[in-house]
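> example.struct
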């Protein structure tokens, strides 16, 4: 676990990043994608078509902007086991991050 503040964006990239991300990719996002490619993992929560309120994982102080900077990484070998990944923005966890949930088969 770590806080890289990576944004992988909305554009599909090979079989690592799906077409349903949020926002624009930044430099840290590029490094995360490169790491995922080398280690044969996918960024799981970019593969599910959901409304934006179920994608963003971080809210700036004062509620000025919201970004998707927390991810579920799973081995390509087990990608079919990830049935859904979404955030639970109504969960009160006393943080500027929201709960990210993944359901595995």
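> example.seq
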């Amino acid at each position: 676990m770590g806080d890289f503040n990576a944004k992988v964006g909305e554009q599909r990239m090979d079989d690592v990043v799906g077409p349903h991300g949020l926002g624009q990719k930044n430099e840290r996002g590029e490094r995360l994608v490169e790491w995922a490619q080398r280690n044969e993992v996918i960024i799981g929560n970019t593969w599910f078509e959901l409304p934006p309120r179920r994608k963003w994982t971080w809210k700036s102080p004062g509620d000025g902007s919201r970004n998707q900077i927390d991810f579920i990484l799973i081995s390509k070998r087990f990608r079919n086991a990830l049935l859904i990944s979404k955030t639970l923005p109504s969960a009160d966890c006393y943080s500027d991050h929201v709960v990210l949930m993944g359901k595995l088969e």
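> remarks
The longest strand covers residues 82-88.
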